[in-house]
Every structure is written in C-alpha cells, then in structure tokens.
Specification:
Elements: H1 4-18, H2 24-31, H3 58-64, H4 80-93, H5 103-112, E1 119-125, E2 134-140, E3 144-149, E4 154-158, E5 162-168, E6 171-176, H6 184-187
Antiparallel strand pairs: 1-2, 1-5, 2-3, 3-4, 5-6
Length: 200
C-alpha cells in the first residue's frame, strides 16, 4: 500500500494532467475541499442532415413519357386480369355487394373508389361520337379517362359533358363526369354532397 505522501503526490500529478489550465494554487485549494470536480471536454456530435429525396417534376415525367402506354401494350386482353382484380377490390370495399345492400351505400363507396381496371360505358354525351364507347379504364386523370376498348383501341374520353355507366355484380352505377373532375387521389378524400338535379 502506498504511503500518504505518495498518495498526495499521485493525486496532485493526476489533477495537473486532468486540469492543465488550472494553476498549482487553484489545485491545492481544490484539494482542501472534500469533493473534486474534474473538467470534462465532450466532443460535439455533428448531426448529419437528412437529404430529402426529390421526385420528378410534372415536366420531367412528361419528357420521360412515364405514363404513356406503348402501342404494343394497347391490347384489351392484357388488362382483363386487372379488371378481375378491380372486381374483387370493389367486392371487398362494399362488403360483398349482397342483394340486400343499400344502393346509396354502394354509390358512396364507388364515388371514392379507385376506378383503374373498371369497365365503363359512355351512356350519354353532348358529343354523339362518344356514346357507346365501352372499355377498361387504364388511367384516370383530372379531366379525362383513358379507356382500352375490345377492339384494342385506346380512347381518351373527357369527363366533362359525359355520363358513364359502371356495372358490378348486377349493380349499375352512373358517373356524371362533369361532377367528377378530380384526380383519383383527391377524390378519395373529398366529401360529396347529394344534389337534387344533375345535368350534363
């Protein structure tokens, strides 16, 4: 065991190493106290800034033609499995589409549902050439539907001034395009109000 003198010398040397900025008088003054507080220099941690991943702008998406369907892919048969998936999605959304289902409940669900894959028919239009167009909705934009017909033709049908019919398990619903001019993502969050009369 070390003697008291050796212990004092060790403590004094230790304090000098630990507190190089302190003078000998200050260290001796601290030794007379019961508690000794040693200085601690903590390393400042530099926070790494997270870089936000920037998506493509609308112009870049158009230039890259991300949403264009290639001519060799414009075939009705290719998208029939998509329609089957859509039918199952609507059945799950409307809890089975049972015969005793309330029409207004089903209609309310369809208003907010995703229509990609649905088979629609233009039943009324201010432009007679659109009436009778039937096909699977491939893309829904704010103002138009892109529909692939059984003749493998891609039709761009405006929502404005058109009425579309939608049949699901015997339940026929009508979409008034003039009141439907929203993007699919916006439509899912919108609250639709019941109106007395609806015109083209």
């Amino acid at each position: 065991p070390q003697g008291s003198e050796e212990a004092k010398a060790f403590v004094s040397a230790f304090l000098k190493r630990s507190m190089p900025k302190k003078k000998d008088e200050a260290i001796q003054d601290m030794l007379t106290r019961k508690a000794v507080v040693l200085e601690h220099y903590s390393k400042k941690k530099t926070k790494q800034k997270r870089k936000k991943t920037k998506g493509f702008t609308a112009k870049q998406r158009r230039d890259m033609r991300l949403f264009e369907i290639e001519p060799n892919q414009q075939r009705y048969a290719i998208f029939l499995p998509l329609h089957e998936l859509w039918k199952q999605y609507i059945r799950d959304l409307c809890h089975g589409l049972k015969p005793d289902a309330q029409p207004h409940m089903v209609q309310g669900k369809l208003l907010k549902a995703d229509l990609h894959g649905a088979i629609v028919t233009v039943t009324k239009s201010k432009c007679p050439s659109y009436v009778g167009i039937t096909g699977i909705i491939l893309q829904e934009f704010k103002h138009v539907f892109k529909i692939i017909t059984k003749e493998d033709k891609l039709k761009v049908v405006p929502k404005l001034n058109n009425v579309f019919s939608l049949e699901t398990d015997g339940f026929i619903s009508y979409i008034y395009g003039s009141k439907f001019q929203l993007r699919a993502s916006e439509r899912s969050a919108k609250k639709f109000k019941l109106k007395g009369t609806i015109d083209l």
